[in-house]
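Re: your question about Sarcosine oxidase subunit gamma

S., sorry for the slow reply, the queue was backed up all week. Below is exactly what I fed in.
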Amino acid sequence: MADHRLHPITPLGHDTPHSVTIGPVTITEVTDTALASLAARLGEGKAVADIADTAGIPLPGSGHAAQGATFAAFWLSPDMWMVEAPFATHEDIVAILKPHFGETASLTEQTDAWARFDVTAPDLPAMFERLCNFDLRAHGPGAATRTVIEHLGCYVVIRAPGHLSVLGPRSSAASLFHALETAARSAF
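Result:
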């Protein structure tokens, strides 16, 4: 039998998450978060909301993100959210969530489908107005949206003042990272 020695790599192809600082901007690859989409089945919206509340999973409204003690989530569409949890304790996030929701919701593993980059800087609107149509000046912490960055469908989640996350397709991680770097160099 062959002896395969596989090791995980980040979306950018490194052994450890990559980070770059350009002036006041730091762009960091984030790999310690498990992701699952949660979609309430037809007619089960109230049941899903009640179950999520009991399980400590925040389910924010349209255009928002929320952080709980263990789980975080951001809104994707009516009765649908992306749920986040620490990867170290929730690697198989769907198996952890499924017993709570049973047949009331559809859960889909998303961890390896997305690349996440956290961007920190004192003036993020100056950078992001070059990237997408999400007006950061009009939104504060807890805002989230789907937008397009360099022809890639991405999610932007404002975590705190001067700190946001960009989630884009893992298969285009290098292109997204390059776009973020280019915008940072242009803005600062």
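The chain has two domains: 19-31+113-187, 33-111. The chain is about 25% helix and 35% strand.

Happy to talk it through on Thursday.
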